[in-house]
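W.,

You were right to be curious about this one. When I first looked at the sequence I had no strong expectations either way, so I just let the prediction run and decided to look at it fresh. Below is the sequence, 282 residues in total, followed by the output.
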Amino acid sequence: MVSSLPHPTTAAGRDGLAALLARPEKAVVALDFDGTLAEIVPDPERARAHPGAVPALAALAPKVAAVAVVTGRPAGVAVRYGGFAGVPGLEHLVVLGHYGAERWDAVTGTVHAAAPHPGVASVRAELPGFLDRIGAWPGTWIEEKGRAVAVHTRRADDPQGAFEALKGPLGDLATHHGLVLEPGRLVLELRPPGMDKGIALADYVRELGAESVLYAGDDLGDLPAYAAVEKLRSDGMPGLLVCSASTTESVPDLTDRADLTVRGPAGVVALLEGLAGAVQGA
């Protein structure tokens, strides 16, 4: 293994990395956006990819089957905040937005999307009054995500207390409208069932006929993608699970299952740079 690359702590992770390096042209490198390629910030609209992310992706993408950004954000928003459009070297990049309900391909520069779930529009209209009626904690706010709606508690006086207090009522509201509630780090997202990063990732890997896969994420919403990689490994496909963990916030459910933990988006960028160099020298 190339010395500039970090060493996975598990045998399955080492096998996954070895397979990626041996046949990069048959490997998919998939990454979450917020917390993985971009730092978590109080206002999600101000999130931007780490300065080194696009150069690292552009160096790696031509050497692998594909790079996929798998995110809960709308695909077009992730492309804009990531700065992915029109970058030489990123022709093999796709963005699977809204957990795979939308897809942006760098080659065409267009977004393809399924019809929206009607429950999202209903929740969007009802949510402000609903939060007022249940006495939502000051500082909570609603993020419009197109095919989903999220309630953030990061700005509340007691962010974790607000998160726990809202989880049950928002879960009931989601169920009433045929949606599911997805908890994250101080965010509760109401979205259609059957949309998750695991389904999106597994479908894309099979579509390409890939022989190995790397997935990097940082939050609870990435657990389905972790499960998808674990299922692919049980079916014989090597895979590497990477956790992007900041020094102040980490998710034990991910760090406990990861083959490799790096320090936030800067660590992810360093890993991508190392992979690009290792593939070049393989």
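Here's what jumped out at me. The radius of gyration is 19 Å. And, maybe more interesting for your project: Residues 199 and 228 are 7 Å apart (CA to CA).

Coffee later to discuss?

I.
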